[in-house]
């Protein structure tokens, strides 16, 4: 199926809104995420005109390509570019929409050169979904921090250990760079830009037409909850994300509390109210669940499993047996037998 989108170095802050409104050029990676692209563009479409007329009055957008060939998404649906790369200065922002992580390069050489030109021209760059990986590979996140999905947090750390990365929020604004976890968060980034350029009313109108109750900001946590219980407090959700991202080298609870903007005692009260357990107990549960998954679904050595969640080999087996009632060897054997 083909979808055609019809069209009529020092760190610096995001440029102030320009007279021409909000104009975004989209560079799509191979196997890009369709939902992120669609939500971003639809937010612009609905904010940029009256009603649902979809004219490019206050917002404009183009799907860019050096070749004009169809671009395949991760769904298999292909999108037709609407413009060549050209001069990046004609846009207020350039958004790179990533997708499936592959060993091969996600962008062709011409598209990468276009990003370099955009950077030289001081056009703000946005990394959507795994678009942050692409910006990092191009050296366009040097000296900056990046936001990625909790799902790809460790992938990013392994590939780019020199770049600070976070997965405890939806998106992050670092000067003229915006990086976003992806998914529905793409609509939130678009709404953030709409409000800056066109005002709050335009943002609210777009969100309401899209049936989105409210636009979330860069400080909102990603909707990841490793426990079955419903967690409503943002600080508890952020604390759990921080715990998950630091299983091998556990952070102190007071450090996590500080990063969540609350005292250790306050965080304890919230955890007891939301999960019925102390933060330290919840942290241990996360570590042991990660160990259980590795023991059950991989052939990784038990010493390595223990180290991956912050336990010395001498204490891991004992901790595992206390948590699950059997040794790692017994548990793996039971799982392999399908019991």
Number of strands: 11
Q: The CATH topology of the largest domain is what?
A: Rossmann fold
Biggest pleated-sheet summary: 6 strands, mixed
Query: Which CATH architecture of the largest domain would you pick?
Result: 3-Layer(aba) Sandwich
Assign a percent range to the helix content: 40-55%
Average pLDDT confidence is 89
Query: Number of helical segments?
Result: 13
Low-confidence stretches: 1-12, 15-19
Beta-strand proportion: 5-15%
Strands side by side in the biggest sheet = 3-2-6-7-11-10
How would you spell out the order of helices and strands? EEHEEEEHEHEHEEEHHHHHHHHH
Structural class: alpha/beta
Under CATH, the homologous superfamily of the largest domain reads: Class I glutamine amidotransferase (GATase) domain
> What number of domains?
2
| The first-level CATH class name of the largest domain | Alpha Beta
Distance between the termini: 44 Å
Morphology: globular
**Rg from Cα:** 22 Å
Walk me through this protein's architecture.
By secondary structure, the chain is an alpha/beta fold. The protein has 2 domains: 2-209, Class I glutamine amidotransferase (GATase) domain (Rossmann fold); 225-339, Homeodomain-like (Arc Repressor Mutant, subunit A, Orthogonal Bundle). Helices cover 42% and strands 13% of the residues. It has helices at residues 34-47, 109-120, 131-137, 153-159, 185-198, 200-209, 234-244, 253-259, 264-275, 279-297, 302-308, 313-324, 328-336, and strands at residues 2-4, 22-28, 59-64, 71-72, 78-80, 93-97, 125-128, 145-147, 164-166, 171-174, 177-180. It has a 6-stranded mixed β-sheet with strand order 3-2-6-7-11-10, sandwiched between helices. Helix 2 (109-120) links the parallel strand 6 and strand 7 (125-128). Helix 1 (34-47) runs parallel beside helix 5 (185-198) and helix 1 (34-47) packs across helix 6 (200-209).
